[in-house]
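Subject: for your reference before the review

Hello V.,

The reviewers asked for a structural picture of the protein, and I figured it would be easier to keep everything in one thread rather than splitting it across files. Below is the amino acid sequence we used in the manuscript, unchanged from the supplementary table.
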Amino acid sequence: MTAAIHHQCLVRPFFHMASRYMFSLCFALWFVVCLVGLPAYASGLSGDNAETPVVEVKAWLDNKNQLDDGRYAVNQQVILYIDVATPRWFTGGTRIASIEIPGMIVKQRNSLATNYSQREEGVTWSHQRWEITLYPQQSGRFVVPSVDVDVQVSAPDGRSVKGRIATLPLAFDVSLPSPLLKQNGYWLSASELMIEEQWELSRDAGELKVGDAITRTVTVHGEDTLSVLIPPILPSYVQQEQQQTVTNPFQVYVQPPKLSDSQERGNYRSSRLEQAVYIVQSGGDIVFPALELQWWNTSSQQLETLSLPEKHIRAHHTWRSWLRTYWLGLALFGVSMAVLSLSGLLVSHYYKTRPAPAWWQFSRALGRRDWPQARLMIYRRLHQRTGLVELAKADQFCCCAVLPSQQAKWGKLQHRFQAGKGTSLSFIRLWRYLGRCLRPGLRRRSRFLTLPKALPQLQELPHKNE
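And here is what came back from the structure prediction:
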C-alpha cells in the first residue's frame, strides 16, 4: 500500500523596499498571512518576486515485494521516494537532509535526483525525484522522520525563490520472513543472488608440491541489497588457524573483502569479493569443504540456498615436507628396529652356550624337511608332557581329545604320523595337540617366566607317587 503525503506550499515573498514606509506595510501583510494559517516549516522560503510560486512535495514507500501480511522482511531493501514538483521550473537542484533511523541502514545510492516532467490538467509540472534505500536490521516498527528538502524555483516574474519544506513521518513494520532464519544469522534478503568461484594454482594440478600457492576467489552478486549485508563466505582466518593445529594442510592468507554498490536505471546491484591464498604445507589430498549461503528471495518470497561444491586438490611431498610429516613414525620405527636388533643379539649370545628352545629346533627341522629329527622332537615332547613313549596312549592326558570329534582328529593324526605319511601341517598340529596334554603330577612350565636349567642335559625325574 502506497503511503503518499501531499503538501502544497504557497510561497509569499515580500519586497524589500528602499522606503521605510513600504517595508513596514509589507511586514504587516506578512504577519496577517501567517495568522491565516500557513505551515511553520514553509516560512523559510524567501524571494524578491511579488507572485507566489507553487511547490508540492510527496513522500512514499515502495510496496514492491512485501510479505503476505504487508510487512517488509529483515534486511530487505525498502525504497523511500521523495518527489518535489512545481508548475514553474527549478532554478537549482533540490537537496534533502540526511536521515538517521536506529536499527536501520540508510543509503542514498544516487547522488543526483531524477528529473522529468508531467502534464496535469493542462499544466506541465517539473519534477525532481529522490530515491533513498532503507535496510532494516531487526524486526519491529520503524518510523521515517520528517525530511527537510531545500528547493529553488522560479517565480512568475522570472526571479529565483529559495526555501525549505518538510515531509511528514512514515511508518512501516518489519519481521523475519521465515521461522528458519535467525535475527543475527548469516543470511540476507535480495531479489536476485548468484555466487561464483575461481581457482588459480601456481603449478598445474598434477604437479602441485608443498610450498606452492592456491588462490581461491569467491564473488557474490546480488540485486536489491547492500554489499555490507552480504555475509562472509570463506572460512575466517581464526577458523583456518584452528584447523591447522589438527591437520596442518595449508597456511592461509585471507585478503580484505572488496565491496561494490552500483545503481543503473533503477536497478541496485551489489557484490562482495573474497580472496584467500593457501600455501600448501603437506602432501596428500587437500579437501576444501563445500560452502553454503542462505538468502530470502524477495521476488518469489521463498528461502533459498546457494552452495559451492567440495574441492579436492592433490599435492606432492618434497623430501623436507615428507620428513616433517612422518618424522614421528620414522623415529618410532627406528627405535623399534634398534630394540629388536639388540634383543636378537642378546638372544643369540645367550644361546651360544645353551641349547636352542625345543620349538625352534622343531621349526628348523621342518624347514629343512628333516623328518627324522622332527619325529624325534615329537616323541621328546610327548615324553616331557606325559612321561610316555607311545603316542597312542597320550590321548588319556590330552584335554583336546575329550570330545568325540576331537578324538577322531587325534586318531587320524597319530595314525598318519606312525605310518610315516605326515606333512609339515600335520606335524605342526600334532605338536600343538601335545602342547595341550599334561600328565597329572607334572609341573606345567610357564611360557614366559621360566628360568633356564643349569644342566639342561639332565632329564626331569618323575614324582614319587608315580
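For the response letter, the relevant points are probably these. Residues 107 and 133 are 5 Å apart (CA to CA). Residues 319-350 form the longest helix (32 residues).

Happy to draft the paragraph if you're swamped.

O.
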